[in-house]
Amino acid sequence: MPNTLSETINKKLLEKLNLAFINVDSDMRVVQTSGNLAQYGYDEVAVGDDVTEHVDFLVGIDSDQALTLPVLASPAGMPVSVNLMPESGQLTVVIADAKDQFDLQQMLQQKANENQLLMEKQRKLLAQLHSAQTQLKEKNKKLEEASRLQSGFLSGVSHEFRTPLSAIIGYAELIQQDKSKEHNQGTLELKHNVEPIRRAGNHLLTLVENLLDHGRLDAGEIVINPKPVQVIALLKDVEQMMQPLARAKHIDLVFNDDIDPGHWAYIDESRLHQCLINLVGNAIKFTDSGSVVVTSYCDADILRVLIQDTGIGIAPEDLAKIRLPFWQASDTGKVGTGLGLSITERIIEVMGGSLSISSEIGVGTEVTMELSAPQTGEADEQMPVVKCEFDQKLSILLAEDDYDIAQLVVLLLEEANADVTHVENGELAVKAMRRQDFDLVLMDINMPVMNGYEAIKIVRGEGNEVPIIVMTASVIEADREQAQQLGCDGYLCKPVDVIDIVAIADQVLPRS
Ligand code: ADP
To answer: Which domain holds residue 478?
Structure first.
């Protein structure tokens, strides 16, 4: 019976360790055994036996060797720890239960394995992330390239379209404005028949402009140029432009407003004009009977325009889609590209506004446009006087390679009081400017032999300061900048009409 606390503790510890002892002599023969050998599977160990026949981990061990062997498996499959304690020519082999140690080791191993797995997972995820990032970069690059190509393509296409369109619209207008010939039945009919050509040409031009705007909006290249605008005048102008369309369809177009003529607001006039024409144009296009009512309000800083029509309406499931570029309801039977609304909405957003649409099929559509239009004082600048003729006879050099356009511009300029010398490329233009002093030069850019830029560079290099106006089908901003850097005095985009040329000539010619 243990009688002290330390004896009790020792006993408990020994019980827990569940020790077994084998004493061997210097030849490793068993001298004595004690403790719970059977539990570990060493029950066959008998006095006089060579201990290494039963306990294989003692093979090769000397009897005078002190050693601690960590967790081993006993013959009974139990985890044991073994201590070899040499003393007085004998060796005591102490075998102890190492289950706790073993469990701890197992747990640590398990944790290490789990850690390893987690690290492996982390490594894989990082690799995936890296590869996704690379793919994304690659895709971004491709998208940027595609967008650049699209922009370039759109500008190119627009250029190709604008040049022949200039000729179509210009000649049609020329025939309609012809005052010199007698108005016999033939010429009246001709003028009448030319109207659809002019209208179709203008329609095509609008489509080209829409495609260009679509590309510019995608590339974030739409620039808003606000200036003081008399709001009521702008609305009246839209009304005047759209009335003939409504009349042709026998529907009422009503403009209601309560806007003071003294209300001027700071907005981009041409962009707002474009948006209103698109929205009112749609209302008229999709209304076959009834009316289109345009109601406008101006608060201090907000312009609100409500366009209500009694047209075919839009199905609820289509309402979200109509704002997508190129989307059109399938059964309207109307001509269009599906670009107008998407462009309008995006331009309004760029101008700090919003568009909301509600509609009921068979009843009509209501579009509300809200726009930031800070009120401002009246514009200082005088409204430009529209003139179709130069104040005095001018000698003009025209460098233009397209024969039809050149003929048209020569005719228009001659009617506007000018003597025109026409050349077909930049080299001939340089020669002509060396030979003769002109009042004004109109220079195309894309020409064979020598382009307009090179020609301008040469004559400016020679000190010639004649006013030069670039006249091109290119609408790329970089072209305009280059023209400015080379010392051009003006830039006109085709199709140009004589009013534009006279107006810009007025600005650049020295006052007499
Ligand atoms: P487009 O008029 O060239 O077809 P839009 O982008 O202006 O292209 O309009 C897209 C579509 O939205 C139209 O094709 C039409 O289906 C629908 N839509 C637009 N405005 C109206 C309207 N006022 N009434 C009915 N449908 C409309």
So the answer is: 394-508
